Each structure stands twice: as structure tokens, then as C-alpha cells.
Amino acid sequence: MPTPASTGSLPPRPPRFAGVARNIADFERRASKRLPRPIWHFLQGGADDEWSLARNSDAFDEIRLIPDVLVDVSRIDPSAHILGREFPLPLVLAPTGMSLLFHQEGEMAVARAAASAGILYGLSTMATTTIEAVAAANGPRMLQLYCFRDRGLTLELLNRASASGYDALCLTVDTPVAGNRERDFATGMTLPPRFSIRSLLDFARHPRWVLPKLFGQRFDLCNIVNYAPSVRTKRFAVIDYVNSQMDRSVCWKDLEWLRDRWVGSLLIKGVNSPQDAKQAVDLGCEGLMISNHGGRQLDGVAAPIEQLPAIRDHIGARTTIILDGGTRRGTHILKAIALGATACSIGRPYLFGLAADGERGVGRVISILREELERGMALMGCPTLSSISARHVRIAQPFSACASHESVPEPSPLQSVIA
Predict the structure, then answer these.
(1) What does the pLDDT look like over 254-308, one tens digit per residue?
(2) pTM, whole model, 2 decimals?
């Protein structure tokens, strides 16, 4: 049966939830109404047939929970030890680019909500807010970085993060080229934009989105723009400049180069194989983000939760593992912890909250996942995260069998975009 992610549709809303956002899916529906169609599909879309995008969440459904009973759960402690530091939740806000596309407060709304919750926020290199401004929110913070062709640009961003007190640096390694995101071609969300009359009319139907873009904060990749002075006043040329800096030759030696120059915690984002995970740890990475870039890069790649047990077994217990991709419920976090994750990160879920209700929406998304996690821990008979282990889960069938393509493929989600 088609999943919401694979078809571009949304699950029906139960009548009792009308007007109240009680879960991530409710915020997803609200965001879909607030955003113009091209922006919504840019947020929701993945690569090619979006199989990996759908699989990221679907794979959680094949993991069964096995609760303990007659356990004292009068006190629930969901705190987690991440990168050598104690956090109130095993939850990280993953780096996502260009947040001003989704709300006029952009990254600052996300940074403030994360700071209020005391959780780690990852700022993207492709952010529309500066490294220094996000630091002013005074929350735990991490900068996501690419190893650009111009190593001077990479080093300058690193130095700015260090000067601004960032706790960690996260190197994204799964983007030697951009994924094939067909929804964007269908809606005209390309560079430069090629919007159809239908898309332009859809923008006109969303004045609450359009007016802040016309009269609010200027939309720029502001951590990059000053490094391309010849194109500083041309936004699309700046993005072209960034794309030209993506280096297909990046290899393990470049990770060593970065490790030598960053004194804080270093993570690598985009790891999927146990062998790569082990090599990253051997080269000095304190953390790994198991990720397929939200299904936006290589379609057909395994879901992060499928790769988690093998990676944890291969690298041992000490390294921080952040599961990035598909988390939509507190019970998903429980399953990931049981299979070896230190924490989970979310991207689209907090962007749904941002698009729906700004900082308050992001804060509510965090609260929902906290409530679901704590309730799940109590019902599982696990008062602390350390009491959750592999014995509390059962995989319904081997992940490799679940991932087979023997069944007839569902229609491409591109069909729902064009329809």
C-alpha cells in the first residue's frame, strides 16, 4: 500500500484532532497548508522515486517492542550522554538549509526553541542566518560543514564556529553531487526558478508566506555570500558559486585535515556502512550521524535504522551514534536506542513545526516527542535510557528481506506533484 511519503499525500486527520496539533503528522498537515506548493514539495521531496525517503520511516514499523512489566516507573529520566555531555533528551535538531523558505524567523526560531529545550541544534552551512547570530541564542550548537574546493573557505567557516563557541563540527560526506530531486523540476523550484503559471498562482494564494518574503529579512546564504564578492548581489549566482565549490575529490585525508584543525567534537554525517564508520572513528571522530540525507541523495540506499545495529556492533559502545532519518514518534526513538543509537535527529519534523507556527511550533514538536518518549519508556518498563536494550525489540523479519524489490513498485511521487 502506498505510504504518505511515497505518494506525496498526507494521512487523513482523525476528527478528534481537528484544530489541535497532537503529533508530527498534524504539524505536517498544517505545514502543507501554510506553504506554497513549490516550497512544500521542496521540503517534502526526495531523490528519484523516493523509495529511500519512504523507507526511512517505514523501516521502524518492522521493529516490535517487547515491554517489561512490574517495574517501578514512577520516575522517568530521558536524559542522554551525547558527545561527552549530558542532555535532557536523546534528540538533536539536524542541520537543514535555507530555513527562511519556511518561516520568516528562519533558523533563529529553531535555535531559540532548541536552546529552551536544552538540546543540540545543527546549523547548516547553507543557512539563511549567520553563525554568530545563532550563537547568540546561547543553546548547545553544532555547525554542519562541507569540505569545499577552496579549503580556505572551509577553514574560515570552521574558525568562525570556534570563535562563536560551537560545541561540535559535523562534516557532511554524502554530497559529491546533488541528488536527482524530480519534484523540484516538476514545480519549477530550480536555479534559476522556472515556475509555471499554476505555481505562480499558488504563491498568490499564500499571502502569509509571500508578504514576509517581500518585506522581511533578506534571503541569502549569508555564511557564504561574502566569499563570492563578484556575485554578492546576485542570489542565484551565489548558489551557483556554492555548487561549484562541492568537491568530488574529498577523501579520508580531508577528514584528517579537518580533525587536525578543529579542537572540539567532530562528527561525520552520511555514514551508512560499518567499515566507513570504523574508519571515521579511527581517524578521531567522536560521533557519527547515520544518514542518507533524508532520502534526498542516493535513492535505493538503506534506511539508517536498518544499518544501525551492524554499525554499533562494528565500532563498539563508546562512540556517539546519532540516527538521522525517519524519526516521527517517541517510540521510534525508543527503537533506535534499543538497537544502539545514542540519540535521534530530526529535520523535516521541526521544519513542519516551523512552517506551521514559527518558534512555538518547533518547541511544540520537541515537546510532543518528549511526551511520547517518556510515555513509551513508562509503558516499556524502562525508567532510564540505559535500561533499554536489544532484548526490548524484535525485528519482524530481516531488514534485508524487507528491503527487497520483488513486489511491484508504487507509482512515482512525481505523478502526484504533476497531477
Answers:
(1) 999 999 999 999 999 999 999 999 999 999 999 999 999 999 999 999 999 999 9
(2) 0.89
Q: Which residues contact 159 (CB under 8 A, 6 or more apart)?
A: none
Cβ-Cβ contacts under 8 Å for 366 (sequence gap 6 or more): 89, 91, 113, 114, 117, 119, 350
Mean pLDDT for 115-119 is 98
Q: Tell me: pLDDT of 2 over 50.
A: no
d(Cα 378, Cα 389) in Å, to the nearest integer?
15
Contact (Cβ atoms closer than 8 angstroms) between residue 356 and residue 365:
no
Point out the residues that are catalytic.
Answer: 293
- Dihedral angle sign, alpha carbons of residues 327, 333, 335, 340: positive
Name residue 231's amino acid: V
Q: Would you list the domain boundaries of the chain?
A: 4-174+243-404
Whole-number Å distance between alpha carbons of 284 and 301: 26
Indicate the fold that domain 4-174+243-404 takes in CATH: TIM Barrel (3.20.20)
Residue that the C-alpha cell 509503558 belongs to? 379
Residue 346's DSSP bridge partners are 93
- 3-class secondary structure for 99-149? HHHCCCCHHHHHHHHHHHHCCEEEECCCCCCCHHHHHCCCCCEEEEECCEC
- Please report, in angstroms and rounded to a whole number, the separation of the first and last CA atoms in the chain: 19
419/414 Cα distance (integer angstroms): 9
Q: Is 346 strand, coil or helix?
A: strand
